[in-house]
């Protein structure tokens, strides 16, 4: 069983780095506690050592923000919200594994270049084994009191559940080990076992999070920011329950299309249920409601001032629109209320919207740098698609199609007046496609003519991005052979603070936190789950009973908070009467509100619309256009076959590594591989 994820390593070489105090994985500076090599039993000789061993297991998870370059999970580039033109025809050096996955390059034998790639299957089982060792040795340290025992047990169960969580999301049903410590030096047949079904795995993982939550703290101090709390466990349960209720995993035509013939050999049970269970939506709603009822979390907002953009006139969809937030969009600055969450302007440790987040430099050193204009030292190639741009509403709440009728939206001509709102400068001469859009658009999207303020340096401040072919930041301007240009004409600007600069005297970047799960998602989970119900259900979450049904006022209240925070009108009564329409509005809202937060990839799959979204061309502006007439037209980026995305049912999950299948012949590979 050499190299098997199930093999116990008795004489372990442990290499432990100095860990900061700002992450759920990074709490103790433990390199002084142990020699570089030690017998595993030494880890359980004291409470201090056991806790250090536990956080060492947590440190084996990859940075959750690491979703774009050298990424451990497919992320935005593997769905319709992201695109990158940097690929190599010789098949080497591409470290954008989401693009590898979307273009069909990932196989059971290849998971991407680099030390960190999409093959995390074995890593998660190593984490699980470490957790099982802790749980079986909780009574060993003589100095372990009841309070520390409960805390370590709670966090260990959370860490183990979190490893299974990623296995389920990225690989499908895992092998469930429970509390078992697999023996060493057994015959190969001993290690062979089947995968759980999706339902079995979902129940196990949610129950583990429930058990962990009972022992975890309700909150942590500022210095422990990044450490998960009871709310994080409950919020992840809500996310999982929504996935479980969704069409891909809940019977019906979609589940049958993808998994109808995928059956476990030992008992003939479908790995993914083929029977619709509406009650799952009620369970998801109750799980979200539990988080809401904790009273600890709310949407982050900034009070309006004289720089706040005025709300558009003539909005009639909701008579309460002008009421003060959360009953309307009045009284807050919609731009800053959204943008400050991601730019670092809002202090993360006390942001009431973060249910679980962590400080990370990846947002600055990779995502922010990847979007920054080349003329300011960036790569300029972390692109979003035209589909994302088209999804943003107008500032009055209409779609671009609805606003075309009276010219409020146009794909002809340019603006004639400069604007400034909430500190955001918008030049005159901007293509009309980008005028009159909702505040989240300006907070998230870098387009041709957008200003990168670059304010921490003394020169090159308020730089206007020029993506025309011969522009300073365009394909021809950075030399035709360079990949450092926006192949779609749009980059992710969401994580850019006005003070951020890469080069020049005084250049610095503001520290930022990455949201693992935040309250806006919980509100949208609740709205979606309620909207999909037809009957009333009584369900139990934890030890509390909930009566759940399609309550239009509850849908409106939760969904509208997210809309109001963005400065938009909420749902009308006419819209609420149409459940299919509300579902489409929720899908659009999640795409925009949660852009590049590693959720869209899973959303389009659980909704059963993955193939539909992938078949839509990943269009953008024309990077070969040297003039407005040639640049501002929709094109499909790139002509290389290495940029052509594969549409296949197998791409709902990553494949199980072939090496593992050879060791464990009873493990069924994911369909299509």
Task: Please tell me about this protein's structure.
With 673 residues, the chain is mostly helical. The protein has helices at 47-58, 97-102, 121-136, 146-171, 188-191, 198-215, 230-245, 252-259, 279-293, 334-343, 362-371, 386-391, 400-404, 439-444, 519-531, 552-565, 573-576, 579-593, 600-606, 610-615, 628-631, 658-663; strands at 11-13, 37-39, 354-359, 419-421, 424-426, 445-446, 451-452, 463-464, 491-492, 513-518, 537-541, 544-548. It starts with 10 loop residues before the first strand and ends in a 10-residue tail after the last helix.
Quickly list its features.
mainly alpha, 12 strands, two-stranded antiparallel sheet, disordered N terminus, 673 residues
For the residues shown, what is the average pLDDT?
91
Number of DSSP helices? 22
Structural class: mainly alpha
Helix content: 25-40%
- Largest sheet, strands/sense/barrel: 2 strands, antiparallel
Number of strands: 12
Ends distance: 24 Å
Shape: globular
- Strand arrangement, largest sheet? 1-2
User: What amount of the residues lies in strands?
Assistant: 5-15%
The stretches of 5 or more residues where confidence is low (pLDDT under 50) are 1-37
User: Radius of gyration in whole Å, from Cα?
Assistant: 25 Å
